[in-house]
Amino acid sequence: MTKLAWDKLLSGVRRKDLHGDGEAMGTAASRTEVERDYDRILFATPTRRLADKTQVYPMEENDSVRNRLTHSHEVSNLARSIGIKLAFDHAKEVFGPEHEALQVKRNVPAMLAAVGLAHDLGNPPFGHEGEAAIGHWFRRLQSNNPALSVQDDFLSFDGNAQTLRLLTRLQVLNDSFGLNLTCGTLAALIKYPAVYGGDIHGLGKHGIFQSERDVAKEVWEQTGLSAGQRHPLTYVMEACDDIAYSVIDAEDTVKKGYASFYDLMDYLESHDSGDPVIRDVVNKSRKKNAEFKKGEISSRQLDDISMQMFRVKAIAEMVPAATEVFVDNIDSIMSGATDPGFELIKKSRCSALCKAAKKFDRRYGFQHRDVLKLELKGTHYISEMLTILWKAVSSQENEPDAYDRFVYGDISENYRYVYEKSAKDDYARCQLVCDVVSGMTETYLVNRCNEYKALRHEIS
User: What is the spatial distance between Cα 396 and Cα 407, in angstroms, rounded to a whole number?
Assistant: First the structure.
């Protein structure tokens, strides 16, 4: 792998520019190109839809429990914070003597905020269970139709690959560039730079559909990257996702009433193995809890504010720890010398804290009966919707009945436009139904599925 250069990694070139389709809209308003990326993502419809998608707890009615949108805003905030630290306190050692010319104080925090906000846009309803449900449905489809060509893109469907597709293909009607983000931001967004059907490069899974192979190639050419090689800022985004997943999800687990602050403290203490970071965070959290006890507040409120303090203390340890590892390893990151499994948090002094918190989340939150029950319902609805859509899409080449014409016509015009421009083969049909389902919110999925089934019942 060639040594990376920040002037390319922070590329403000957009794919439209590469194809001669760029147009100055006069809307920059003194923003850099990278800063504009964040704003485009913020105002995009799929971003708003994240408010009705699962972070941990499906179809949650309590507004104080996080959904996928609030999770994404928090990851974005954490990533921007690390970006500010890197750009202001470590500019020369990380970005080199040309850091002023590269405007790293503006572009690095903005790029990290953008990829943090966008990183989960491709996730289907019901989170990771939704991804698994899509893959399972396609494996069943392939088993029942051996002559059908179903690619790994769908048999092992992944929301990260759908995110890249969503941002580069599906967002603007009559346009093949999506939100037309900068190549630098798109490169930093690709968590698994491996194309389905090809080498996995030790990354654990593929993160680019075959349909976006050329998009990835263009992005890599502009940023100096190649297949299997992550953008350096991707490591930061991943670390911030880990922080949110471990620490903040624990706060929501307690807020749901599935565990208490004391359950978390006891669990961490039983897993500290003498780890100084865990011990310090627990001691500081218990100290604040003891202070709060002196007030006349309910046990639920005590849990609430004690968990807030735990979150503050834990993040105060994890953010600087991730930053330190990034700075200390910048030479190997830029030269591509890190191992495929390199992660900032895993290499940091907070590794044990993150690992223990994730185990707590899984034991008390993710595996709770109520959560598993809702995930099962979500899996059922996804399977039902895919079956309905597959029949409607497949029938369009022949003589569809009124029901299938209705369902097909209900598909987003953006998605149908992309499909109509394709070869309309098995791959394109699989992709269309994935586009539709992954773009749905949970409420919309349930309501539409029930509506379609009721209509079918009425006319049968």
Answer: 11
Residue 77: C-alpha distances to residues 36, 106, 296, 429 (Å): 17, 15, 33, 37
Closest CA to 148 of 353, 366, 428: 428
Contacts of residues 36-40 at CB distance under 8 Å and 24 or more positions apart, as own/partner, are 37/110, 37/111, 37/114, 37/181, 37/182, 37/185, 38/110, 38/113, 38/114, 38/117, 40/179, 40/180, 40/181
Neighbouring CB atoms inside 10 A of 335's CB total: 12
What is the structure's pLDDT at 173?
A: 53
Dihedral over Cα of 453, 48, 180, 119: its sign: negative
pLDDT at 444: 96
Q: Which are the contacts of 395, defined by CB distance < 8 A and separation ≥ 6?
A: 401, 404, 408
Contacts of 191 by beta carbon, 8 Å cutoff, 6+ apart: 119, 160, 207, 230, 234, 237, 238
Q: How far is 188 from 103, CA to CA, in rounded Å?
A: 17
Rounded to an integer, the average pLDDT of 436-442 is 97
Over 70: is that where the pLDDT of 27 sits? no
Nearest to 409 by CA among 401, 185, 13, 166: 401
CA separation (Å) from 35 to 30, 143, 180, 429? Answer: 10, 47, 13, 36
pLDDT value at 24 more than 80: no
pTM recorded for the entire structure: 0.95
Least Cα distance to 439 among 46, 44, 117, 72 occurs for 46
Average pLDDT, the chain: 94
The yes-or-no verdict on residue 136 having pLDDT over 80 is yes
